[in-house]
Amino acid sequence: MESSTIKNPTAQVPDTPEMNDRDLITDALSTEKHLANSYVTALHEASHDAFYQSILGIFEDTSKQQRNFYDLMFQHGWYSITPAQSAEIKQAEQQFTTSKQQLQ
């Protein structure tokens, strides 16, 4: 059984060499993802609690903004998702369970 894609109607954007709304939001989402990953690294390496708390606040703001960009892209039909089949979920769960048992 094939999964159906979950997607909103696609908002049309001009097909020109200049960046359009979709390009700008895609770029912003990508930037937020990279920032969030960098903040996670900084959180893991922060040795001073006040510094850690400061980075944590920035990370949380960045994560919220990343989600806002994703939601905006999804609303405009520029981002789609495909639901996983039950068998795929069970297979992934079994793989993680096996890995966890091997680490214990």
Describe how the helices and strands are arranged:
Elements: H1 21-45, H2 49-75, H3 86-103
Characterize this entry briefly.
Keywords: Capsid protein, Virion. This is Spore coat protein. Helices cover 67% and strands 0% of the residues.
Describe the structure.
It is a single chain. The protein is 67% helix and 0% strand. The chain has 104 residues and is mostly helical. It has one domain. Helix 1 runs antiparallel to helix 2 (49-75).
Please write the string of helix (H) and strand (E) elements: HHH
Q: Please summarize the sheet with the most strands.
A: none
| Shape summary | flat
Distance between the termini: 36 Å
Tell me how many strands there are.
Answer: 0
Binned, the helix content reads 55-70%
Total domain count: 1
Rg, please?
19 Å
Runs in which pLDDT lies below 50 for 5 or more consecutive residues are none
* Count of alpha/pi helices: 3
Mean pLDDT: 91
Strand-residue proportion: under 5%
Oligomerization state: single chain
Q: Helix- and strand-based class?
A: mainly alpha
